[in-house]
Amino acid sequence: MPVLGIEINDAAITGVGEAGVVFSEPGYAFVDGTRSLFGVEALATARLNPRQVNNRYWRELSESALPGSSSQYETFADLAQSQLERLWSACADDLTEVLFAVPGYWASEQLGLLLGITEELGIPARGLVNCAVAATRRHYPERELFHIEGSLHEIGLTRMSQDGAAGLAERHAVKGLGIESLERACAEFFSRRFIDCSRFDPLHEAKTEQLIYDKLHDWLAQLKRHDELELSVASDGYDFRAKVEARELGDYQRKAVEPLVQKLRSLLAGQPCALQVNARLGAFAGVIEALFELPNCDVFVLEAGAAARGVLQRHQRLPSGDAGIRLTTALPWDQPPVGLSPAERSGDTGKTPTHILHQGKAYRLGPEPFSIGSELAGGAYGIALGGPNSGISRRHCTVQVEQSRLLVHDHSRYGTFLNGHRIEGSAVLQQGDVLSVGQPEETLQLIAEVVGNGA
Question: pTM (2 decimals)?
């Protein structure tokens, strides 16, 4: 009985059959009134015709009117249906069941709309499974498990329950950070290297900007295999070249994913943890390296289309469709469990900062709030920084140990920055972090005591 698993992720809509990947393309649509393109073809014109390209119709799947709708496509659902119809028509022969792995951010209305679209297209839908559940095929004993899903416009963090099966516990999201923003950061990095090497700015014109995006994922893949790579872009009869080091790109991207790292720190409670990352997100330099720096965490990059593969391989374990199609939020594992890493077996959980360093002086941290601001209240422990026009509030932020973790709390009008990114309310601190406040900025580094009083 031929079965197809389809993973709905706007960064890569992927279909997997018994023989492997059947299709995989991004959720992009180009419509100019006379013609329409989808997937890779639409992506190839996104920088040339930005007003005619839409990449939000899967995320915002609804019957709401499209901005600048045409007579052919009036709603987000129209675009989604047209793309799914194209993909389905290329592989429909002899398929008797289709199982969908669907995004965790979809509401019941969007699930119903997808089923309505499949019915209209004649797609034999037999099940809906949450993407994180579908992708989780192994048990991680003695560890908390998080599934990290990169889509175009956000990164989803799903804490998984492991009570006899892969299930959902809670979902969080890092909004504004997704595959689209990481691609933009990479394009900016590559462009700067061209400027440094030849004064040629490929982002200055749409046609050369499109060339950068066309080559981007191939360059990323090569930099995974090589320490250095020579890039080339042809424009107006000239061949421009630039050299890029994988280490430099990784350092640049690690800064871009700092909001993801901060969110994970707030969710992790110091216990051993496993992080499984979808392939599209894991392809970016620096992302996995940043996650590996989280204490007591193992990181596992899943294969492309992992959710589609997971729902395909376990389709016989889905609930019976006698009562209609419902969203499945728990499935048994079908692969062997994953053992503990050497670090986890030894109990090495990494170092929590013990001091904050400013201008060569180290201040011990503990349960008493360490205050940072332009003024210190009587008897307060901390340091006074800046002047009246420095962008530092009187009580700007505080740092203290809470439940065995070191946290910074922002109380200011101007913002407190952790490793270059503004925190939202509070954040968990680790050894080597840098806090910055004010303008021009004052920086404070978090350090850990090594031996005795040798901070």
Answer: 0.83
Q: What's 227-248 look like in SS3?
A: CEEEEEEEECCEEEEEEEEHHH
- Residue 411 falls inside a structural domain: yes
Shared domain for 104 and 194, answered yes or no, is: no
What is the mean predicted confidence (pLDDT) over 211-218? 96
The band of 295, judged by pLDDT with boundaries at 50, 70 and 90, is confident
Residue 290 lies in a domain: no
Tens digits of residue pLDDT in 76-112: 999 999 999 999 998 888 788 999 999 999 999 999 9
Residue with tokens 């998984």: 160
One domain, residues 189 and 124: no
pLDDT per position as a tens digit, 228-267: 999 999 998 999 999 999 999 999 999 899 999 999 998 9
Residue 451 and residue 431: Cα distance in Å, rounded? 15
366 and 424 co-located in one domain: yes
Under 8 Å between Cβ of 370 and 329: no
CA dihedral sign of residues 338, 342, 345, 350:
negative
Pairwise CA distance, residues 255 & 185, whole Å = 10
- Whether 155 is covered by a domain: the verdict is no
What are the residues whose beta carbons fall under 8 Å from the beta carbon of 335, sequence distance 6 or more?
137, 138
Tokens of 205: 């014109």
CATH number at residue 22: 3.30.420.40
Question: Is residue 195 assigned to a domain?
Answer: yes
**Smallest Cα–Cα separation from 277: which of 173, 189, 148, 186?**
148
Mean pLDDT, to the nearest integer, of 180-205? Answer: 95
pLDDT at 351 over 70: no
* Residue 196 domain boundaries: 179-253
Gap between the Cα atoms of 335 and 350, Å rounded: 30
Write down which residue in 188, 220, 253 finishes a domain: 253
Last residue of a domain, one of 65, 98, 132: 132
How many Å apart are CA 102 and CA 111, to the nearest integer? 8
- 190 and 97 part of one domain: no
